[in-house]
Amino acid sequence: MCAHILLVEDEAKLARFIELELGSEGYQVSVAYDGMSGLSLARESEPDLAILDWMLPGLTGVELCRQLRATGSKVPVILLTARDEVSDRVTGLDAGADDYVVKPFSIEELLARIRAHLRRTHEADEDLLQFEDLSLNRRTREVFRGQRVIELTAKEFDLLEYLMHSPRQVYTRDQILEKVWGYDFMGDSNIIEVYVRYLRLKLEKQGEKRLIHTVRGVGYALREH
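Above: the chain's sequence. Below: its structure in token form.
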């Protein structure tokens, strides 16, 4: 799947040049020529990366970036600017920009920075498991139901992570015992029922719908109903 890049640049010739170069690299590109249009496009299309010119009509690139961050967007942002003072760099980074490319720049440098940010985003995505409004971060070991933080024990986390690997797949009790508790587990197999109950209590604490379902005679699955 090719990455989708949003380019907001008011210099038409430069915008066209960058658009063609990005297209030749296999990226899908959306272009806006002013800040407000760029903000609307960013919200509608949810790009994988945004390239914003600093000086834009209507809404500057810095203000656009600040607005994106205020709405919770984590899209990587590269600012294009002729400003090269340390104070300008600080302003851009404080607004939430991830990188800074000074005009005039080589297209090779811009492409290299784009690849680096997309690679980091992909690596971060691999740590994040999501199903419905439930999200789990394997790196930070954080779990959310919507915006609500869910505190789990180490084993509760391991069980939920295993179920979230392949939502809708039915896992047998033997599979769960082997993967979550290990080959050498000698305890009662009812331990799974106990931990599933713990997880349900925490995941459904505020009346949320059930996501961990019992498949009679087989095991458990993470699914809508």
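DSSP finds eight helices and twelve strands in the chain.
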